[in-house]
Write a structure and sequence with these properties.
about 110 residues; alpha+beta; Alpha-Beta Plaits; three-stranded antiparallel β-sheet; two-stranded antiparallel sheet; 4 helices; 5 strands; about 30% strand; disordered C terminus
Length: about 110
């Protein structure tokens, strides 16, 4: 199974490499290709239920919510304090991993 995702917030090749490596290391992912210029990512999954298992865990932890539209299911970060904290942590990690972001964030805790 192959899915295409929009990825925002990447500003350099280091960001692209970090996202691609992180997603490629997830259980159930066969291949991941991240395109910095198009802000997109194409992920090829195993036929195993690992991805849906991860989404179920994130949903039960209150970090994401889902919406079904016909056969499609859409996921987004939940609007809860734990989810917001998790989102801020991910943003911080991306900024640390990206040299251009670190320069713009000097003096920010």
């Amino acid at each position: 199974m192959q899915e295409k995702y929009n990825v925002t917030g990447m500003t350099c090749a280091a960001c692209q490499a970090r996202v691609q490596k992180s997603v490629s290391n997830l259980t159930g992912v066969q291949e991941c290709n991240v395109n910095l210029l198009k802000n997109s990512m194409v992920v090829t999954y195993d036929d195993s239920p690992a991805v849906s298992h991860h989404l179920k865990q994130l949903k039960s932890a209150g970090l994401i919510v889902s919406r079904r539209d016909g056969k499609e299911v859409y996921y987004r970060a939940a609007d809860t304090e734990p989810a917001q904290n998790f989102h801020h942590m991910i943003e911080w990690l991306v900024k640390i991993a990206c040299p251009s972001q670190v320069e713009t964030q000097k003096g920010t805790p």
